[in-house]
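Before relying on records like the one below, remember that each one covers exactly one chain. Contacts with other chains, cofactors or solvent are not represented anywhere in the record.
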Amino acid sequence: MTINELQDEVIEEFDDFDDWMDRYQLLIDMGTAMPPLDERYKTPQNLIDGCQSRVWLQADLIDGHVRFQAESDALIVKGIVALLLRVLDDHTPQDILDADLYFIERIGLKEHLSPTRSNGLLAMLRQMKMYALAFKTIQQ
């Protein structure tokens, strides 16, 4: 699936819920379903700066696609990470760099996050795009 198809799928899922408490529960469920990050990747270099909670992000380039793994010690943040991985994992570096991540606005995520979580979301996105840029440079 393309990044846009995945975003549309996420938007549809969130549209099933009118109440933000239900949407938060969906986020928590997504985070809970995410496989745990291998302890060897929970290193200071994989911690994302700008997040109030601890968030580790591991990225690898496998067969021309960026493969992300992540974990957080906070339930909602872990759900946000799971959402980002769902949309951006297993795509080419160029696809990730070109992605217009409209789903964040469309599901109302930014407006329902505290300022610190919103900053954390931006920090996670920035780090994922930085990995994509680094991998694109390696490929050239």
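The mean pLDDT is 93.
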